[in-house]
Amino acid sequence: xxxxxxxxxxxxxxxxxxxxxxxxxxxxxxxxxxxxxxxxxxxxxxxxxxxxxxxxxxxxxxxxxxxxxxxxxxxxxxxxxxxxxxxxxxxxxxxxxxxxxxxxxxxxxxxxxxxxxxxxxxxxxxxxxxxxxxxxxxxxxxxxxxxxxxxxxxxxxxxxxxxxxxxxxxxxxxxxxxxxxx
Length: 182
Hints:
Elements lengths: L14 E3 L10 H13 L12 E4 L11 H8 L5 H7 L12 E6 L8 H12 L4 E6 L11 H4 L6 H16 L10
Parallel strand pairs: 1-2, 2-3, 3-4
């Protein structure tokens, strides 16, 4: 994901988290669309100490509603129950968590919408301010779903070069992924 920073030393209190294909294969072009749009609106699109967090169709839980491929890619196929428990983000919400904005679609075909519900519930329990929006339809990774996205107006030459290189590595077997990911 590209980072866009304004040169002005004005505080811009937002961080944007877009999985861009989950942990297994990150698609920089997907995050790029959103980063550019928020930059144009006056936000910084990255921060080491966020004042707020935006989670778009997030992978949250390693439990029953997990996107298994993400956790296998992150921890390996032989992850222990303790590791899976630790990495399950709905169990890691603390009182110092920044306010969160979550959104997802009910018809997300990759990451079950229950991931967002679990995180919202954890935020509620810790009394963390949040907004949670579930849209009735839409696929995973729809980004901003604006005209630029629909016209596929994204992907700088470097981004495209990296995407093609990754695809070639998967085809050559030098970057191992599951058959499902292929």
